[in-house]
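Convert to structure. Protein one:
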Amino acid sequence: MKTILIIGATNSGKKTILNKLRAQEDVEFQSYDCEKIVLKDQVDYLLRLSGENQLNLINERLDKEVDGIIYVVNNRAGFTDDDQGIIDLINEKNIPNVIFANKQDLKSGNIISNTMALVIPTIATKGIGINDGLTLLLEMIESRGIDQDESKGIIQEIPGGIDQGKSSYHHLRMDEHDPEICKVRFFLRQVEFENVKKRLESEGFGNITITNIKYVDKALEKREIYRTSSYTTQYPEKVELMLVTMKENIHYICQALASIKSEDIDDHLIISPVENVLRIRTREEGENAIE
């Protein structure tokens, strides 16, 4: 049984989110109001289980069994220093977490935070974004378990490729004669760009080239009028991310993308061989020239 905490300030929408979350047989949800206190010039945070009066220090609760956290922010109020402090505490405990930027119907837009956490725009009253965010969090929890097993020397081959709603992936089978350096390309919608970029950077992949592209989608074909003339438009926008890396790192790219996979991230990686990489200034070649 997994335990997921829903934490946020009063009136951030936690109760509504709890009611909208899809029932999970192996998940227990616990909703907590969070309040700041100052004791002897030291800032701390108290948690109160919704519907009860008992207060506990946040560290005391985080030290107990918890598998993941949904942190709820009232987007109308914005992301405060207190929100940042709580997220920092959660990250120090290495607990998988996502941020729900709730009440987008009252004030839309992305919150600004100094965190690697995934930010999910939500409208709890309509159920928008709620279960997508839960799916991503469950994938992160599962991926964390895989990482822990592999760190203990347990190499698991998990059936299934990267697919929507799943965090599973194949270990890549590459021939020994394949080139050591590869170019990796993949595509996503703009809404997922920051999440993907942060996730890759957290895994050490910072040398990323970004290209805005358009693609043909017959399902989205529509007609528009411009200066009395009718035009057919069927070219929605996407973002292409490209990076050059050693072939043994492709497995880690797959793992990073699988942990945040959604329908807005394409299912395929395009992998091309690279004969060599030369750094002009230093004349370094090959692996030494790849940042």
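Protein two, convert as well:
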Amino acid sequence: MRLLKMDDYRVKLDIIEVGKRLHGRGWISATDGNISVKLDANRIITTPTGVHKGYLTPDDFVIVDMEGNQLEGKAKPSSELAMHLACYKERPDINSVIHAHATYCIVLSVAGIKMAKCLLPEVIFTLGSIPTADYAPPTTEQVALSVIGPIKKHDAIILERHGSLTVGIDLFDAHNKLERMEHVAEITYHSRQLGSATPLTDNQVGELLAIKEQLSGKKLTPSDNCNSCNACGKYGSEALPNLECPSAEIEDSAMVSVIDKVPAELVELITREVVAELESVKR
């Protein structure tokens, strides 16, 4: 565990800077998003609820203990404080948490497209696989519960229909991971517009893990990089429900049973073919 000694005022200025960056990139809007930093073993500084994170001032911040009890600050702490505290309790090695509403991360989530595929070498080196936490209503304790599993081994997580969650050894480390995750989300989006996003092969991932071992000095296994989501289909058709896209309720249960087993990629392919056929008829 590496606990950094923080100067409270310096941390406030750093959070203000990161808030401006998030707003400038369009990853938060209005009062969305929240940022926190661990100051010491029992103090967490967090952004307040109901305040625009792109225009923070040093007087806006709230300090709480590890149980969420407010120690300093006039405003109320972030409405997602429970999620932040869950991350710190599960990961004593981290000192910062950022929750944003990064555009492409949310676009893929709403479309039911997982980001767990091993697509880019630099992501294997840094983030590994990017899992998606189960949907939970924002601001509720269910959000905290939904991230407990994936945060144990992953520093970057998609919150189903809710945005992104990144953690780091410090504030700027968490910010850099968010930037990288949104970048791969944008690449995934555009590659799917051109046809499909082809993942790295098992052998290629193995080679990258070997290089990562050499660079980090830490022995890795494929499970350290994979969340077993089957987004790449390596487990065959038995795990296809992991590819399903959340959809509106359909009364016909038999139809739901069939739809849930159809991979999103196949649905997209069929849709493109149908649209192309209709366009040719119009001509």
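The chain has two domains: 8-225, 247-282. Residues 171-194 form the longest helix (24 residues).
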